[in-house]
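hiii so um. not sure if this is the right channel but i have a protein structure encoded as tokens and i wanna go backwards to a sequence. like what aa goes where. can anyone help
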């Protein structure tokens, strides 16, 4: 579906141009203050939500639920949904506090008070991207801070964060919060390294044009059996490698080469101002996060970044721009509102489909029409998933049905889909494909694999075809 990527890119383009128009009126300070206050406000609200999760207060109507995967190692993420995303928000707020301090909107006491609050909460997420962002912030302020006050701030940030990270396990015991040690964070299985190897492999196999936009996920399912255990993902968790895997090396080298030159020209080379420092620190934080995940795939990160980039670009290369008639603006806003309403309405049909599927799986009464593909939809992939879930493995399936399931199992590489694919293979005379599919399942879902190992063990006792595959499967506790 090309609509949503196009909409995101167009929204970023529009945001950067609006920011440039404001800079043309000498309002770069207003832009920076608006973004800074937004980051700080959202971060402080997230602090409250985060502690509701920490102390297990039942507020699921307002605060996201923390699943079982975090019960043994609590990493509260507020309503952002992911610990690293929350940490990025905290460090964007820290850059905002430093900006307000430079603009003499707050005093040094407030700076260190908010720093202590945010850095402690950042440590509480146990995210490792802070281990990189903090030194980058400090180095930038040391060399480009412009005065001794910001150097002292940089030293304070490093000292406070190191203390919080080191003492976090002890504080966790005191508060009854399950927290992993630093050694556990440094050691253990690294899922990202395997994802990066897979992305590199894709780029090596398809160096010129890649596997196609949004093609990492399906390609990962295809090749996962050839790598170590990791996790099913639709992104390589590294922006550069993801570009190389999906679009090829020529596009990647040109694009990131240009971004590097642009960053130097707009952030490093010009005379430093408070606005340039603020924007640079925000971009540094997002860049670090983009090396281990995909924050720019979220509009609430992409749009502020686009605004800051538009501001920096206009400050470096001033241009008059183009005047747009008010009727065009009004028409565009009307179209935008209509599209948002249409997407929202259409997505409600998807929600209704998942509710129907849940009722079906629970053995309750449901309306199958809710899962039928509409004639027009922004989300055809979800309705293909509903159809996929109706297919049960059986003998004598047509080649067309097998090919259909095979195609969409690459798009939805969930553990139950991969298991069904393996059963379809074993019941239709494709034992080699079945063995590889179960190896893929173990590689992409190592934590859930034991449950399916037991299932195949039980089936192997009843059916020789299952037994032949079971004997080749990885061990139940395979890493």
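sure thing!! here u go:
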């Amino acid at each position: 579906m090309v609509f949503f990527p196009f909409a995101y890119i167009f929204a970023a383009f529009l945001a950067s141009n609006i920011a440039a128009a404001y800079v043309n009126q000498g309002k770069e300070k207003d832009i920076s203050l608006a973004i800074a206050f937004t980051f700080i406000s959202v971060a402080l609200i997230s602090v409250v939500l985060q502690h509701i999760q920490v102390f297990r207060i039942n507020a699921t109507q307002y605060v996201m639920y923390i699943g079982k995967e975090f019960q043994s190692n609590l990493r509260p993420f507020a309503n952002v949904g992911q610990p690293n995303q929350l940490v990025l928000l905290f460090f964007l707020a820290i850059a905002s506090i430093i900006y307000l301090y430079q603009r003499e909107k707050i005093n040094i006491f407030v700076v260190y008070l908010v720093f202590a609050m945010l850095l402690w909460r950042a440590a509480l997420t146990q995210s490792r991207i802070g281990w990189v962002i903090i030194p980058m912030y400090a180095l930038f302020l040391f060399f480009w801070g412009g005065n001794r006050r910001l150097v002292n701030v940089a030293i304070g940030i490093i000292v406070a964060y190191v203390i919080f990270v080191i003492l976090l396990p002890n504080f966790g015991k005191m508060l009854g919060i399950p927290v992993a040690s630093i050694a556990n964070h440094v050691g253990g299985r690294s899922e990202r390294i395997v994802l990066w190897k897979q992305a590199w492999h894709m780029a090596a196999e398809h160096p010129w044009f890649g596997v196609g936009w949004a093609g990492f996920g399906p390609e990962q399912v295809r090749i996962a059996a050839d790598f170590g255990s990791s996790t099913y993902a639709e992104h390589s968790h590294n922006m550069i490698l993801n570009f190389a895997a999906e679009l090829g090396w020529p596009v990647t080298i040109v694009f990131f080469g240009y971004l590097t030159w642009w960053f130097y020209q707009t952030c490093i080379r010009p005379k430093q101002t408070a606005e340039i420092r603020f924007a640079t620190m925000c971009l540094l934080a997002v860049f670090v996060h983009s090396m281990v995940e995909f924050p720019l795939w979220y509009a609430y990160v992409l749009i502020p970044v686009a605004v800051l980039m538009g501001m920096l670009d206009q400050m470096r290369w001033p241009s008059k721009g183009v005047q747009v008639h008010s009727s065009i603006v009004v028409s565009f806003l009307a179209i935008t509102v209509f599209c948002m309403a249409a997407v929202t309405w259409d997505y409600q049909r998807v929600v209704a489909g998942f509710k129907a599927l849940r009722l079906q799986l629970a053995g309750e009464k449901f309306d199958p029409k809710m899962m039928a593909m509409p004639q027009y939809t922004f989300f055809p992939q979800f309705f293909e998933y509903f159809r996929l879930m109706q297919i049960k493995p059986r003998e004598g399936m047509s080649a067309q049905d097998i090919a259909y399931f095979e195609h969409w199992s690459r798009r939805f590489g969930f553990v139950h889909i991969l298991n069904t694919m393996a059963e379809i293979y074993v019941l239709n005379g494709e034992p080699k494909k079945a063995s590889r599919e179960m190896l893929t399942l173990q590689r992409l879902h190592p934590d859930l694999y034991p449950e399916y190992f037991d299932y195949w063990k039980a089936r192997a006792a009843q059916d020789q075809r299952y037994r032949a595959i079971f004997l080749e499967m990885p061990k139940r506790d395979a890493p």
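oh and The mean pLDDT is 91.
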